[in-house]
Amino acid sequence: MPQKPIKNTRGAKNTRAAKNAYTIFDEQTVGTVQITDDVIATIAAIAATDVEGVASVGGGITREKAAKIGGRAIAKAVKVEILDNILKVRIIITVTYGSSIPETTRKVQKKVKSTLETMTGLTVEEVRVSVADVALHTK
Asked: Where are the domains of the chain?
């Protein structure tokens, strides 16, 4: 089923201050569906921390913390951009010592892309992964 364009409603009144909300239209919705950058960032962070070899996202955000703290803290580690219905994500991770960085980052790219596309219906064009640190402990 084809998806209609996403409308960027920056500064929409029903979103919290300074967040971008994207409205998704398709033939099966009865009203509008809005997704904020913070929601997309949280999904990406949780997906990344599901990958073996990822100790945390950003400055120590583990899977459990990502699910609890949500958008604002994650926004420093995950950047989201939507232009012309295309989603681009930049994520900063800490890898576990002994993990293959090339293999781990490829898995993060694949997991984040598939999870975001499944959960949001958006097309993910790019997932850029930066490795900021190495952790001596596991998740």
From this structure: 37-135
